[in-house]
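Agenda item 2: LQXTBERG complex prediction
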Amino acid sequence: MRIAALIVAAGRGTRAGGEIAKQWQKLAGARVIDHTLAAFSTHPQVARIVLVLHPDEMHRAAAFEAQGVIVVPGGRERADSVRLGLRACGDASHVLIHDAARPCVSAPVIDAVIAALKTSPAAAPGLPVTDALWRGEDGQVSGTEDRSHLFAAQTPQGFDLAKISAAHAAHDGPAADDVAVARAAGIPVAITPGSADNLKITHGADFARAARILERQMDIRTGNGFDVHAFGPGDHVTLCGVDIAHDQGLVGHSDADVGLHTITDAIYGALARGDIGQHFPPSDPQWKGARSDIFLRHAAGLVRDLGFTLTHVDCTLICEQPKIGPHAQAMREQVAAILELDADRVSVKATTSERLGFTGRGEGIACMATATLVKP
Ligand SMILES: Nc1ccn([C@@H]2O[C@H](COP(=O)(O)OP(=O)(O)OP(=O)(O)O)[C@@H](O)[C@H]2O)c(=O)n1
Ligand SMILES: C[C@](O)(CO)[C@H](O)COP(=O)(O)O
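Presented output:
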């Protein structure tokens, strides 16, 4: 089975409101569409992702294409967008068609659809209706419906690619979803377990519920770092990537940037991936005099490789001299640039140790840092 995920995101999101369509709005630290894509890009059985965007939003395509996603412009109705996306599914044998507006879809919901596709040409998640169902007229209950055979339809809806492509090509008129298109073509559809968490963001109030669900599902980690470098001969120190004139330098195998070393260690700590000495041994001559941004870039790369997002760094330098305040903003910007992070998410501050201890006696500079990582 070679599976493509087809994410439809070409709607206008008029019912949800807001200045931009719902799929571009922020939700639990990322955009709705990012959460949805992550659910499929991290799924081990999904080989290809096709994303359908509104024709007016195609300027956003390059950022997704850089991540290996195939982007195509959508159509007027959801079914038109699906039809256009199906053509880009290439050599896949099966396709999972999913609403971008369902960002809380979980791996078990996707797994169940894939498992059912082994024995059925189509499968989709459904949630049994649990509330009683009334008929109503003029504000009065006029009857009760039998709910024993009723399900709320969810996505991803999975299909044999050739069969659903033919069904869409032949379909004329409106369709509630792709299951309706499949059934109109005579394709049987198995029902798999849906989830109450797999809501479709439809109205503005749905954002708060989706955020609570995602935050519950997230892997949020903090790591701390601590480092010390002694003063020695020199005419400047390098702190958080910024060179500061000083009557002494810092001693170290690399450029002795105690700030960047500490932040690097905080990130390794959050990932539970050892420390800077393990990744860049001081015994290795290639790191002699190296600029420490190399170490921090390595840690940031590891964050991305392991599927995390770095959301915040807080760094405290501990020294009597040099004064950090005048350089703190430049340091924040330097760290943010190395980490490809907004400067608002980087804090660099300083304290003295009230002339106590080795920092108080001016023998060296110490640093503490905390890094926060999130994985959806
Ligand atoms: N022409 C369309 C219409 C909808 N969709 C996508 O289909 C999914 C489900 O549709 P819905 O919730 O109805 O989204 P919108 O059409 O954007 O919402 P609204 O009806 O409130 O405008 C969404 O991910 C939406 O982006 C699409 O790709 N192309
Ligand atoms: C496909 C779907 O998500 C199934 O529940 C849904 O039908 C699409 O959204 P809409 O609000 O019906 O357009």
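Discussion summary: Residues 178 and 319 are 64 Å apart (CA to CA).
Owner for follow-up: CH.
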